[in-house]
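=== RUN LOG ===
request id: a7f3
mode: sequence -> structure
chains: 1
length: 117
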Amino acid sequence: MNIIVYGIAEPTVRTVAARYGFDVRERFECCAETNSMVILPHLAGDDRHLEFMTDMERHAELIDAVVAAPGETAAAVCYCAPQGKLFTVAPDDELAADELSLIVESLAGLICAHEGV
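=== RESULT ===
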């Protein structure tokens, strides 16, 4: 499972990833063999947006979720997310950790989506 994460503090992502046995990647790399969370850096500039859009299109079949916190450049992430795979979380780190955990559990079939996501 590959989850793209944007706008959530790195320590928060690493904590949640460790809880569920996910690898954390800091570059846009998706692979089918492992569970990973990809922490996207701030998307500044047109070149970075274009590179991100190309990566999302190229890896769309391997992306299980795109999780974004509201922010100045989050719109680009939301726009490029594969249809039906976008989740948004609260900008607060503690709430974001809880919501990211619920998303992972829902995708992994550990809880039903209607139980809190």
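=== NOTES ===
The CA atoms of residues 28 and 38 lie 6 Å apart.
The beta strands are 2-6, 23-25, 36-39, 65-68, 86-88.
=== END ===
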